[in-house]
Design a protein that fits this description.
- The chain starts with a strand and ends in a 5-residue tail after the last helix.
- The model has no long low-confidence stretch (mean pLDDT 93).
- The longest helix has 17 residues, at 196-212.
- It folds into two domains: 2-27 and 164-283, 3-Layer(aba) Sandwich (Rossmann fold), CATH 3.40.50; 56-122, Alpha-Beta Plaits.
- Strands 3-6-7-2-8-1-9-10-11 form a nine-stranded mixed sheet, with helices on both faces.
- 30% of the residues lie in helices and 29% in strands.
- With 288 residues, the protein is of the alpha/beta class.
- The protein is built from nine helices and eleven strands.
- Helix 4 (149-157) packs parallel to helix 5 (176-182).
- The structure holds iron/sulfur cluster (2 copies).
């Protein structure tokens, strides 16, 4: 079973829930897909077993073959290619590739009529896998200045071990990196806080998951502050509230020292284990 942990809003405690949930289960793998800012590893006593550079294929032009026809520029939906026709007889044109805009779709190489485009590997980050006790772990780290996180997320997910319960720590928000992370999950846990901001972003996240037909449930963090908006919304949409975590200074203290709170507050382990039971039941139902 693959369970992703996401949150429309950043700073709600998504990674805290993902790490503590994973640490409460047996035969589990934690996969941190928040490649722009991976931090799950900070809470684990990790032994890294494998590290590799993640590459994407980007086009390179052989201008001795190119006639500056402009097909590649027209094909590219991301404006990653500029073609300057120049003087046809003097062959004075040029083709410019903007690697940071390229989504590595391969369309230009496929459709160049003169086969003047080949692909070269461009490093975008690193992937690491390892173990923490008997938990398997994988994450990706996007290079600084790199904007293309979905290809790295896809490559990190290739290390998913489906023989285990897989917990994916997804990036915050509701855009492409989140969709790439939760895609293929059997269930998504949405971590929120009971405030108008939390509710606003929770509604967006639920809409995304509905479109992806992924069942979801909610964990309310800092449940004893704020208002009733999140609970009212969940009741109205028949979204299960899987767990409520109070605003607890000790949890905050443990977090700031890189200590997962289930290691010190052991009764939460039972709650996370029970939560997986609820998730298995809810995942069998159709999404709202
Ligand atoms: S499609 Fe091929 S031949 Fe045409 S401008 Fe691009 S690289 Fe050159
Ligand atoms: S590989 Fe795709 S995104 Fe990249 S330059 Fe070619 S057409 Fe554009």
């Amino acid at each position: 079973m693959i369970v992703s942990v996401a949150s429309g809003k950043g700073g709600t405690g998504k990674t805290t829930v993902a790490v503590n949930l994973a640490l409460s289960l047996n035969n589990v793998q934690l996969v941190d897909c928040d490649v722009e800012e991976p931090n799950a590893h900070l809470f684990l006593n990790l032994k890294i077993l494998m590290e590799k550079v993640a590459m994407i294929p980007i086009p390179e032009i052989d201008e001795s073959l190119c006639d500056y026809c402009g097909t590649c520029r027209e094909v590219c939906a991301y404006n990653a290619i500029a073609v300057f026709p120049g003087d046809e007889k003097k062959r004075s044109g040029g083709v410019l590739i903007f690697p940071h805009l390229c989504h590595a779709c391969g369309g230009c190489a496929l459709l160049c009529p003169r086969k003047a485009i080949h692909e070269v590997g461009k490093p975008i980050g690193v992937i690491q896998t390892g173990v923490s006790g008997d938990m398997l772990f994988a994450h990706g780290k996007l290079n600084i200045g790199e904007i293309m996180s979905p290809p790295l997320i896809r490559q990190v997910k290739q290390y998913i071990d489906r023989s285990r319960t897989v917990i994916i720590d997804a990036p915050p928000g509701t855009s492409c990196p989140v969709i790439g992370s939760v895609k293929g999950s059997d269930f998504c846990v949405l971590v929120t806080e009971p405030t108008p901001f939390g509710l606003h972003d929770l509604v967006l996240a639920v809409e995304v998951l509905d479109k992806m037909r992924i069942s979801s449930g909610v964990v309310i963090n800092r449940c004893d502050i704020g208002d009733s908006g999140v609970r009212d919304f969940c009741r109205h949409r028949h979204i299960p509230i899987l767990m409520e975590i109070p605003f607890d200074e000790e949890i905050a203290y443990l977090y700031s020292n890189g200590i997962p709170f289930v290691t010190e507050k052991k009764h939460y382990r039972r709650q996370f284990k029970d939560m997986i039971g609820s998730i298995e039941a809810a995942a069998e139902r159709e999404p709202a």
